[in-house]
Amino acid sequence: MEDRFFKNIPHRTIERLSQYRRALQIYSDKGKTSIFSHQIAALLHITAVQVRRDLMLIGYSGSLRKGYDINDLITLIGELIDSPDGQKVAIFGMGDLGRAIINYFRGKREKLKIVAGFDTNPEKANHEVAGIHCYPLEKTAEIIGKEGIKIGILTVPGDQADETVRIMVEAGIKGVLNYTPTPVEVPDDVYLEEYNMISSIEKVAFYVKERQ
Amino acid sequence: MEDRFFKNIPHRTIERLSQYRRALQIYSDKGKTSIFSHQIAALLHITAVQVRRDLMLIGYSGSLRKGYDINDLITLIGELIDSPDGQKVAIFGMGDLGRAIINYFRGKREKLKIVAGFDTNPEKANHEVAGIHCYPLEKTAEIIGKEGIKIGILTVPGDQADETVRIMVEAGIKGVLNYTPTPVEVPDDVYLEEYNMISSIEKVAFYVKERQ
DNA sequence: TTTGCACTGTTAAATGAATAACAAAATGGA
DNA sequence: TCCATTTTGTTATTCATTTAACAGTGCAAA
Question: Which carries the bigger pLDDT value, residue A177 or residue A65?
Fold first, then answer.
């Protein structure tokens, strides 16, 4: 029995595919219809070989001397990484960061929709925040279940991270993106991605220091 | 002539060191004074071997059966990744995301200080935003030069990214962390790190989909 | 004491990812 | 028509990173 073929696509390639799509959309918006591997590469600060190799892995062929058809490629990447029926996302913590993500996202992804927010603050709960309905945290299980939400973004203050993620997982969330400064624990069947802004800034600071 | 010994430390290790420090501080705040490699590993969802290997690379030794001294290790990591005299950071774009980062950062890093914000919005310019003085974008060269700021975080709307980063680089910024959805260009002597939230969410969504 | 356990530190092997090398083919110009 | 150029697609190689294997050692319990 063969796995779906893109099961063996490297993680790094998956990450880049998402970035390719975004870059392609920018090009598409400028009225372009085709693009060379070296142009994609320049946008993402990688090599043209890597772009071609990634596209080879997903089975897309360009045409010699014309490059890749932008719309076809956007479509194909969508078929690979999007869910055909779409996926719903909830934001836990409607502070600055939660709002920033909502605004960032607005209208960008058809197949991936932020449909609910949760917050303990009664000022926010039961109101619209940045156009998204915000529920009190106690309603998590109910709403997550009813809406079939599987993906949660964690943007609460660090000291509430553990407790919030526990509630999320219990309610049925299967993928967590943790923007909190506190590392969290999830069961094996939940995909977890941690991102720490402070570490990113420290990394930039480190390499700036090292280069001088 | 030997390079400073940590020139050959893998990039991934550098990233993890910053994360180790944060995890150690959480442990330290709980009153603990020493920690085992497998405890650090559990916090960061990696293996104990990797932790020990990373610590070996930076030349730190724990003691058998007691593990690592938390304070010593925090200090050593600081000596490696921090600049002794500190580094100043500016935020370009004082929207939700800019404010979120400022609040995130507050009081967390002694050697890395956000000292200025820039925004084109005259409502914000010349006021304090989240405790940081916000200047109009035209003042970039003046303030960056005067303060000796070398690190800039880009949180403007996507369509202003290119122009803003041009101004940053011209003013003397040597490290850029781009949180904008638009990839930018910088000269070779400027360290650039791009982070795209949408790609991160897409990645989580992809692996959630794949696991079902 | 001595034995077994629970750790660390280090070298060796395996895996994963990026780069290099190059064949093949379409195009435009001589 | 044929050649030089430009670009893709793919295999081979190199490089980077993680994981495995295991030696060494202090401590605790018998």
Answer: A177
